[in-house]
Amino acid sequence: MAAVRSFLTFAAGRRAKWVVFAVWFVAIFVAAGPANLPGKFEDAENNEATSYLPGSAESTAALKASKELQGGEIAPAVVIFRRESGLTAADRRTIVEDVGKMAGKRFPGVVADGASEAGRGAKPVPGQPKGYEPFVGPVPSPDGKAAIVTSYIKGNGQGERILDPVKYWREQIDEPPPGLQVKVTGGAGFSADAIEVFEGLNGTLLLAAVSLVIFLLIAIYRSPFFFFIPLAAVLFAEALSRSIGYGVSELGVTINGQSSSIMSVLVLGAGTDYALLLVARYREELHREADKHVAMRTALASAGPAIFASAATVIAALLCLLFAEVNGTAGLGPIAAIGVACAALSMLTLLPALLTIFGRRAFWPFVPHTPETAPAPGNVSERARRTIVEGSGFGAFVRPFLASVVTLLLLPLVLLNWLLRIVSGRRIPSLVVGPLDRAFFTPYEVRRHRLERTADVTHGFWSRIGERISRGPQRVMVGAIAVLLVCCGGFAFFSTGLTAEDSYTHEVESVEGQRLLSRSFPSGTSALTDLIVEDPADIAATRRAVAAVPGVKSVSGPVSDGPPGTLLQATLEIEPYSTEAFDLVEPIREAAHSVAPTTLVGGPTAVEHDVRAASGRDSLVIPPIVLVVVLLILMALLRAVVAPLILTGTVILSFLAALGVGFFAFEFIFGFPGAEPSLPLYAFVFLVALGVDYNIFLISRAREETVEHGSRQGILRALAVTGAVITSAGIVLAGTFSVLAVLPLTFLTEIGFVVAFGVLLDTFLVRSVLVPAIALTIGDDFWWPSRLSRTDGREASLARTQGGGQGERTF
Known about the structure:
This protein is an alpha+beta fold. The protein folds into 5 domains: 2-51 and 200-363, Multidrug efflux transporter AcrB transmembrane domain (Multidrug efflux transporter AcrB transmembrane fold, Up-down Bundle), CATH 1.20.1640; 72-197, 2-Layer Sandwich (Alpha-Beta Plaits); 377-451, no CATH class; 461-502 and 612-795, Multidrug efflux transporter AcrB transmembrane fold (Up-down Bundle); 528-602, 2-Layer Sandwich (Alpha-Beta Plaits), CATH 3.30.70. Helix content is 64%, strand content 7%. The strands form 2 sheets. It has a 4-stranded antiparallel β-sheet with strand order 2-3-1-4. α24 (604-638) runs antiparallel to α25 (642-670). The longest helix has 60 residues, at 679-738. The radius of gyration is 32 Å and the shape is globular.
């Protein structure tokens, strides 16, 4: 334990702080920066639906066989032309002209001879350049209102391979004649829209999240400058996590836009939370200790173990996702764990170094002082004393506020001047801050210090809340549980009806095109179901058996053949991305297997079906593993059994309540058709891990207080001293997760809402009301079977008093 504390307090050393800062600077700006590792992390994302496939799924084997038959993964781009009153002769000429324009530019991934890919009987559209005829058709609809033209793109894992041609084709047909609707859909259209959305996802998310964190930090610390310090530490952690994440991707871990976005949110949210907790303890020590290095060492020795333990708990819970069958979910585990680990590392090393480098005045104007460090009023000019120190509150505020604006506008010059002063041993004068400091900053600091009242852990808002709870803990406990159970009523609206067509919070062209196509063609025309028949003798019987399945319009082919077998393609009558289509996959497989058990059924619909089935399995298997891991960590940390069981139980109840409210909100507020099957698993892992996080901060402090003051006063004092900072941390974390709602993806909006609401529920109700009420109701048995459950802290307190030591406290 001494070795751990020595490591945690290393960054507080007088020389060590510069070593720590230099190591981080070199790692980010010298090693990762020039190699563009954070940028390569984004390039490593794979946002294709097939990247989520579990390795054991039949659609995975079908995809592999299809790639062998076709020389790669083929995505059809379906261009739908439709006029409600019926296509005219002019419309047919427009189709030929548009195809000529679309074929005017060649792309390496586009199959040059579309007829060879479409199979027997397909004809290229007239008007295409000689030697380059990728577009096949047009195929008219039975009602005469529409026609489709199809091309094929052979993917290689790079998003530009699909996005570039689809984007160019859409530009060529974006001004159709009045009344004629033209859209690009199909597998390539859906992939292009997904790739385009994810392309700008990280930048949008980072900008929104950082902006929110800046606002919250300014509101919490009421300082125009201090927020730069924790923000810099968080951004360094973000850069490090993305650099390491790229290295992990090279080892084969699946990364997609969802996991990348969630990792960024965890780094910003968890990192800022850890910063708040450490800074609160450091600020408390600065009121007692004149030496900032000693104050930081004490803060790290006190808050560091709690931060380390909470980060370890979150990391362990996230790594449980490695047991998932869905590749995207399994890939999120290590990626998110890396993010939390980097955030904790930065807050325990870089942040202490930065805080001690900048000193206590970084908190200006609410600078924590001891009598030795407090500014002397006699050093303030008479004019500043009259206008700022003793003047009206408004007038005293406006002057330093304007000076702060000037400093922020000249921030690059200020930082350069500051570094030069350090290098020169302060022989270079302060060109900006110095004059403003003497005229505005120091006088206002004197005013704030004169009015400041040091907080007492036994008084304040959270102390009053604790006293109210203590008057009737059983009644409060029952009331809090009742509120949570009412929230669970939202499970009545549970639905997993969210499909690929509902993936976006706004309309995208591929979805519009699919709906347009469904009005005149069988819906499955744009997303065919693949059948890989191993024995050629079984082809005819397989076609008849699958075509007889209700919901299948027809079975075409052979499209191609080779060593793996012969490729047939079935067209579904219903929407291929609907839950009804997913229900057709098993009947189709049963029909195909009844002829030849080795036949493989794949394609977009089968992929979605298998991913949803694997997600359902993961949601049943992984939560118990997470609970066991979290429970064991809590038992080891608290050296008790009852308290960990209670904390885990309250977090589960909080999760169920948040999910219930989420389902209600999806139905009546957002208007979503349901949730993805993986949503409960994602929400469970985040809310359980993060909920236990806050309980660790509360109960670890309560345990230390119980040693001196007994169980009742221990929990009340812990609530009083941790209430404000943990509430601030909860608001920050909820805010960063809510930023996911600015992204145009329905799943991220849903997970952002559920986690944000769950964190707030846990912060304001579970952690601050329910847990203290349960602890007060149970009394000493809360700590069973540790020694605290038998002594109520009295013997331990007596021993400590007789030994003359005050001991150490963790936050």
